[in-house]
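User
New here, help please:
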Amino acid sequence: MESPSDRVRQACAQFAALPGLLLFLLFFAAVAISHLTLLQLPYFWDEGGYYIPAALDFYHTGQLVPHFTNAHPPLPNVLLGSLWHIVGYHIVATRLLVCAFAAAGLLAIFRLTQRLLDVPAAVTVALLTAVYPIWFAQSSLAHADIFAAAFTLWAFALYLPGATSDAPRYLSVAALFSLAALSKETSILEPAALGALELALLFRDWQNPLLRRRRLGWIAALSFPLLPLVAWFAYHHHVTGFTFGNPEFLRYNATANLTAAHVLQAVRYRFLHLFWQRNIWMPIVFALACLFLARRDDAPRSLTPSARTTIAVLVVANWLAFSVLGGALLTRYLLPIYPLILIVCVDLWRTHTRRWPFLAAATGVAFVSALWVNPPTSFAPEDNLTYRDMIVVHQEAIDFVAQHYPDATVLTAWPVAADLFRPELGYVKTPIKGISIDDFTLPQIRKAAQEPERYDTAIVFTSHFVSPAFRSYLMSHPNTRRGKEFAVSRDLMPAEIAALLGGEIVWQDDRGGEWAAVLRFHRSYDALLMPLRR
């Protein structure tokens, strides 16, 4: 009689045997349906601040370099702009394209795990990745990282099962890593890390002619993606005079971070991002616990030593490199690495205990709960569905002003300043006048109080998100290091801002720490429209 586990394995095998295109369509349908309530949201933070305006520049003018001369590679702009030329400029179209790339990435994870382990493990890792909050949140957001992750993961799927002398595979990996680098410049890290590993193996295997040819072939393939990236930066310099973007962009993303204090702090944060954030610690703890169990006599196929080494090199390279690269310590930079960590965890589960499906189910529950349940720490709203709360409260505040005070001049800060001024971001149908300050800290509010004649309304919101529990802790511990930092950078609350500016709160909402409020000032004057600062 067939056991339930045998039936599950048979079902998984039948699923894996489906044609690749059909599998992709199934993954795409699953991603799109699971994000159904998110597809019509207006653009979020960096979407509206860089990626969508850059893609619109290509859409309207065909220019690869956006007018604000930030040096991110152009492939996401080309893909989005081309899509809009075909279907028209619609936010839903944008988000469905991102869902398609997320689905392609999940299919790559599935195939990679299938080749390294087996089909049940592949199904498990793909499902866990899909519901991991950082991946899930990025699966409909038009950031370059999800485009780069999809190309990178397919390159992993071709490379990781083992070095081979098959020339088409060299070409495919080189092409995929090149597309990843042209999506996000920091994606060059992955082929660079693998190239360094191949170089080390070349010295080890130099006496073996067959292995020597293989290593040299892979070194050439992994070095190739540098060429299109160099070509992009050369073209960018030719057009703008800046190789790596305008001075502000370069300072924020590179030179300002090259201090020992920043790097040491980033090393700690990146470690937490890789091994702790959003309950990723749970499968890791399960895996470590499994090491105390004897290996199963009937253990299924496990990771090869070379695969383990390769994954370890990629994890460490990303941990250290992204402690230096990039201005903000955002977890989305690490998107291609989380599935690799899950592959190692699932491998250890299944080779040490037959009850590993229970560990997978517990991990899945922990990941899904982390989509909504926030820890008492600081984190970026885009790490889970907190980003939706931010968009919703901003939209509500803007809708309130548009309905009740359409001719107002609004005091606010970025990104709402851009949302008011640019209808294409999805928040307004016609622009609303506004003036912008940096944030809602005490110095900025005092500065705004000195020129009350410039505005008659304000939209204030949390520009430095802190979960309510963590905020309460920091407020009650003002003498700690974090408490002192919070006191300097914290946003004033709506009532405090209203008192300092002499206004009244006419609308407010708070969704788990993402709050916004509309203030009205009853003054008689002609408000001035000032250029928005970005």
Summary: Strands lie at 409-413, 433-437, 457-461, 504-511, 514-520. The radius of gyration is 25 Å. Residues 525-534 have pLDDT under 50 and may be disordered. Residues 4-382 form one domain.
